[in-house]
Recover the amino acids of this structure.
């Protein structure tokens, strides 16, 4: 059965789908506050009426003005209204990417404008209307779902995550290519123009949850969260790329080979994998969802620096995260430095 999303009022769930939702659209030196303002103004050739609608304080006022001047609506309006609507809805989403992420996140669901007042743009309230606005929104969604940066992940939901360091807001995403579930833990308020402190942390069940001393992951995770809270704001991206992308069971196989003398790179290769199988391209989608273009990146790993730069993210600072050196992982850390290029101070891996 096809799932349906019904929308109508801009302040309700899925209100961003409504033409009444606040979504500034810049066209030829003019900024339309909503797609409704633009749509209603296109009915008229009289520039004073167009200006009055543009300046209407609310989309509802813009709508009422079009009714007031109904006798002056241009003669071909009924022929062009569909393409006008299609154009402005497309522009609304092209120019308001946060809404586009939310639109793409509706997946395959049927979008219906549940309007008892309109059986052309909406469903007429009884489901028998044409729902032309819903059809346009689904067309726009299909288009953007294949475009950068929307094609990588879809956002599912968000909730509070209290931790020993402070309360984060946790955002859940699904990577479209793999179905993997990734997280962004946001602390504090991310301010435009202030690059946040971030960490791209790859899943390590053994280190992050089971206190393993074989690696440095758990130690880095704690320090990264603490640093973010101390900085006042930032984001920890928790990426489900267990075992440098080979998965948990293969990581156990790799550990077994390391118990018998292989180093971490040789073990991966003996199992038929590259030393590091991770791909960070999908991070573009999560960063864009959070409106992040510049960052301070906590990492020792040059591949993460390169991956973010390739994704078009500006790294204003790299913050070293040298944690947890102990007798069980000193060989592993040395191999990370010598074979994988990790940037450690010589005093850290002595
Ligand atoms: N394949 C593999 N072999 C090992 O010996 C390992 N210790 C790991 N650990 C995984 O590496 C990732 C963290 O590395 P970075 O610090 O981000 O470079 C994480 O996915 C661990 O599970 N993997
Ligand atoms: Zn680990």
């Amino acid at each position: 059965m096809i799932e349906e999303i019904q929308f109508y009022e801009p302040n309700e769930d899925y209100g961003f789908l409504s033409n009444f939702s606040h979504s500034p659209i810049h066209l030829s030196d003019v900024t339309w506050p909503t797609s409704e303002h633009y749509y209603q103004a296109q009915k008229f050739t009289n520039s004073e009426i167009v200006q009055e609608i543009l300046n209407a304080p609310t989309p509802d006022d813009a709508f009422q003005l079009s009714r007031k001047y109904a006798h002056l609506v241009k003669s071909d309006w009924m022929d062009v209204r569909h393409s006008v609507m299609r154009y402005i809805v497309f522009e609304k989403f092209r120019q308001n990417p946060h809404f586009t992420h939310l639109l793409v996140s509706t997946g395959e669901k049927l979008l219906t404008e549940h309007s008892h007042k309109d059986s052309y743009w909406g469903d007429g309230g009884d489901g028998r209307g044409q729902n032309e606005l819903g059809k346009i929104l689904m067309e726009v969604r299909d288009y953007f779902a294949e475009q950068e940066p929307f094609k990588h992940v879809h956002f599912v939901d968000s909730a509070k995550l209290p931790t020993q360091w402070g309360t984060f807001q946790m955002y859940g995403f699904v990577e479209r290519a793999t179905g993997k579930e990734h997280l962004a833990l946001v602390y504090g308020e991310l301010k435009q123009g202030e690059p946040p402190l971030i960490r791209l942390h790859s899943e390590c069940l053994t280190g992050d949850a089971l206190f393993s001393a074989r690696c440095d992951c758990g130690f880095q995770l704690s320090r990264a969260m603490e640093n973010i809270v101390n900085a006042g704001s930032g984001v920890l991206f928790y990426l489900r790329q267990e075992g440098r992308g080979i998965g948990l069971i293969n990581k156990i196989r790799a550990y077994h080979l390391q118990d018998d003398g292989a180093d971490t790179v040789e073990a991966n290769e003996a199992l038929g994998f590259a030393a590091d199988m991770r791909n960070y391209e999908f991070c573009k989608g999560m960063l864009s969802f959070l409106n992040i273009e510049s960052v301070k990146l906590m990492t020792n790993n040059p591949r993460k620096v390169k991956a973010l730069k390739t994704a078009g993210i500006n790294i204003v600072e790299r913050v070293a995260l040298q944690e947890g050196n102990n007798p069980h992982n000193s060989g592993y850390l040395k191999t990370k430095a010598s074979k994988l290029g990790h940037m450690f101070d010589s005093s850290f891996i002595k």
Notes: The chain has a mean pLDDT of 97. The chain has 13 helices and eleven strands.
